[in-house]
Request: fold
Amino acid sequence: MIKTEKTKKTTFLYPKLRQKMGMRGITIKSLSNHLKISENTLRNKLSGNADFYLHEAKAIALMFGASTDDLFVKDEN
Reply:
């Protein structure tokens, strides 16, 4: 029997953050490691099921050289 790896699809609430992550090749795993939180917790935050703490939002903004206002604009669709 061949074992296949299941990947989890995350629906992003913040399109600009998703775009920046893609442009820099930042994965959920690497970002969660940077923030010292679990991948599941980060997925919940990215999808809007949990809130980012201010220090997490600032750390992400610093990582991307952007403002929190720029990165954490919610998708209105």
The mean pLDDT is 88. The domain at 15-71 is CATH 1.10.260.40 (434 Repressor (Amino-terminal Domain)). The longest helix spans residues 54-64. Residues 13 and 75 are 6 Å apart (CA to CA).
